[in-house]
Specification:
Blueprint (H helix, E strand, L loop, with lengths): L7 H22 L6 H14 L3 E5 L2 H11 L7 E5 L5 H8 L3 E5 L13 H4 L4 E4 L11 H10 L3 E5 L7 E2 L2 E2 L6 E5 L13 E5 L2 H11 L3 E3 L2 E2 L10 H11 L2 H18 L6 E2 L6 E2 L5 E4 L3 H10 L29 H7 L2 E4 L7 H13 L1
Parallel strand pairs: 2-3, 2-4, 4-5, 5-8
Antiparallel strand pairs: 1-9, 6-7, 6-13, 8-9, 10-11, 12-14, 14-15
Helix pairs in contact: 1-8, 2-8, 3-4, 3-7, 9-12
Bound molecules: pyridoxal-5'-phosphate (PLP).
The site of pyridoxal-5'-phosphate has 15 residues, from helix 3 and helix 4.
Length: 364
């Protein structure tokens, strides 16, 4: 028997009639781009995040890119972020014409270390992108204080953190804007590509919406040079159905994470620390092990698929070499990249499988 890292067909099987009906609803109206389904999803997702505004866009990378553009960030500007993330975080910055600058993460959480932001600050710095990696919100107090002091925009990369909480507030409610991906494997996933920018500033979200739709508000007047990155109505309809289940799915992930934490007590691996006030949604369940590749092989031969998020940090990628303040290294990020291992994690994963995975790890 094989246990995958994620299982999208198990989720579809559990809500097939609703999802099929939602797709059929769009086909019968035959309005495929924008329209009532997209507006409905934008309203419901904003409300879920605890903010008033949301613009649906084509994918999570575009969400970040369009938020940067809407904030006026471009050539000559620098954006501070982390190197332990998916490449899209940096791609959006370069696509906007700005330069990413990478800071190290904290040893215990593997999230952006606010104490290191000062080292990255230059007269060109315009924004900070904290990444809520693996489903856990960054230490937003320190990041927001720093940004306020230096007049920087904060854009949350919440692509892995739908519903994650921090001190009673959800991911999406902290920055000037927050960007989500609905790539199929995310905690809230579409049946194709989709993304969104949410926030409290109506002007900013309206600008994202305009940029994503050929720079227009009305059909034949193009106010600014724009792009085409709109949300499909079919994706919006699917997401509306799935959003109703997100809290339940996140609870299932929390329960499974609790079983992993208990089951791995005493094993020679490290877990991501959850600080006081944090309420992660466990997009990934990541352990750290010095002999990661050997452990990975052991799990594979026992029938358990694992992942590595991420094996090569962005500042060591050929495309982004040398974007570290002072040209230095990021020791914690580099060490983590050699040790992180993502274990199977999805709401439908059986408790018994978690117990068996923990057994293999303890024995190894
Ligand atoms: C998935 C992801 C993105 C990009 O989302 P896409 O929808 O695939 O473009 C950005 N940042 C992080 C951290 C992600 O995990």
């Amino acid at each position: 028997m094989k246990i995958p890292l994620v299982d999208l067909s198990a989720q579809y099987g559990s809500i097939k009639p609703e999802v099929d009906a939602a797709i059929q609803r769009v086909i019968s109206v035959s309005g495929f781009i924008g329209g009532a389904e997209v507006a409905g999803f934008e309203r419901e997702f904003a409300s879920y995040c605890g903010v008033p505004f949301c613009a649906g866009v084509g994918n999570g990378t575009d969400a970040l890119f369009l938020a940067l553009k809407a904030l006026g960030i471009g050539p000559g500007d620098e954006v501070v972020t982390v190197a332990l993330t998916f490449i899209a975080t940096a791609e959006a910055v370069t696509a906007a014409g700005a330069a990413p600058v990478f800071v190290d993460v904290r040893e215990d959480t593997l999230l952006m270390n606010p104490d290191l932001l000062a080292r990255a600050l230059t007269p060109r710095t315009k924004a900070v992108i904290p990444v809520h990696l693996y489903g856990q919100v960054c230490e937003m107090d320190g990041i927001l204080d720093f940004a306020k002091k230096h007049d920087l925009a904060v854009i949350e990369d919440a692509a892995q953190a739908h519903g994650a909480g921090w001190n009673g507030k959800r991911a999406g409610g902290f920055g000037n804007a927050a960007c989500f991906s609905f790539y199929p494997g995310k905690n809230l996933g579409a049946m194709g590509d989709a993304g969104a920018v949410v926030g409290n500033d109506p002007g900013l979200i309206e600008k994202v919406r305009m940029l994503a739709n050929h720079g227009r508000r009305e059909k034949y007047t193009h106010n600014v040079p724009g792009y085409n990155s709109r949300m499909d109505a079919i994706q919006a309809a699917v997401l509306r159905e799935k959003l109703k289940h997100l809290d339940r799915w996140n609870s299932a992930r929390r329960r499974l994470a609790g079983l992993y934490i208990d089951g791995l007590a005493g094993a020679d691996v490290r877990l991501q620390t959850v600080p006081e006030g944090g309420d992660p949604v466990w997009h990934l369940f990541v352990i750290r092990c010095r002999e990661r590749d050997r452990l990975r092989e052991k799990l594979k031969s026992a029938g358990f698929e694992t992942g590595v998020h991420y094996p090569l940090p962005l500042h060591l990628q050929p495309a982004y070499l040398g974007k570290v303040p002072g040209g230095g290294s990021l020791p914690i990020t580099e060490k983590a990249a050699g040790e992180v291992l993502s274990l199977p994690m999805y709401p439908e994963l059986e408790e018994d499988a978690v117990a068996r995975i923990c057994g293999v790890i303890r024995d190894a």
